[in-house]
Design a protein that fits this description.
5 strands; alpha/beta; 9 helices; 212 residues
Length: 212
């Protein structure tokens, strides 16, 4: 097994304690840093995302895999040309006003970062105007993700999307929505560009919306 394959396996299995040593060994062997990132880590996260969507693994395993990749990237980052983690542009994400849930949002942020985006995480209980401000302050942002995890904050999600549309943000970004009570029909109704049911799908959709 090559060192890059070992890196990929470590990410897939969530070997947090081993990943940094393996990445360093792969670099010491002369492997291309970009190949370690793409074939070793992003490739592994694609496998993890597919397994998650197929219900072969669950949230804890996916979180550990994403955290493992993040640890590996810390070693790799100084060796990459530019910042490949942001190669697909910026992705702004937040949980809407009135909602303090962050596990789903954090999982999406990790998966989207693994897919090559620079993630700007606005946190939880985020007012609509904060989303708009962040978009305008980051003209290279291509996709925005807004989540609502409670039925009582679905209206807040509606208002957030409306605020972004009214501010002309859709000329710049695509708007993704998600969360336990959200459906494709609701996403269509409020004018969002996309709905995804889970973090693995969100990473795939973000790349598609950004034209990557």
């Amino acid at each position: 097994m090559s060192k890059i394959q070992e890196v990929a396996q470590a990410v897939e299995l969530g070997k947090v304690k081993l990943i940094q040593g393996l990445v360093q060994e792969a670099l010491d062997e002369g492997n291309d840093p970009q190949a370690i990132l793409n074939e070793g880590m992003i490739g592994a996260m694609n496998v993890v995302g597919a397994k998650f969507q197929a219900n072969e693994i669950f949230v804890p395993e996916m979180l550990v895999a994403a955290k493992t990749m993040k640890k590996g990237v810390e070693v790799l980052r100084p060796h990459l040309a530019g910042d490949s983690i942001g190669a697909n542009g910026k992705f702004i994400i937040g949980t809407v006003a009135g909602d303090l849930h962050d596990i789903g949002k954090n999982l999406v942020a990790l998966m989207v970062e693994s897919a090559g985006f620079e993630v700007i995480d606005l946190g939880v209980d985020v007012p609509a105007e904060t989303f708009v401000k962040a978009i305008k302050e980051n003209p290279d942002c291509k996709v925005v993700g807004a989540s609502a995890l409670l039925t009582t904050t679905m209206d807040s999600l509606r208002n957030t999307v409306k605020a972004m549309i009214d501010a002309g943000c859709k000329d710049q970004v695509k708007i993704m929505v998600g969360g336990a009570p959200i459906t494709q029909a609701f996403a269509d109704e409020i004018g969002a560009d996309a709905y995804t049911p889970d973090a693995g799908a969100a990473a795939v959709k973000a790349k598609e919306l950004a034209g990557c």
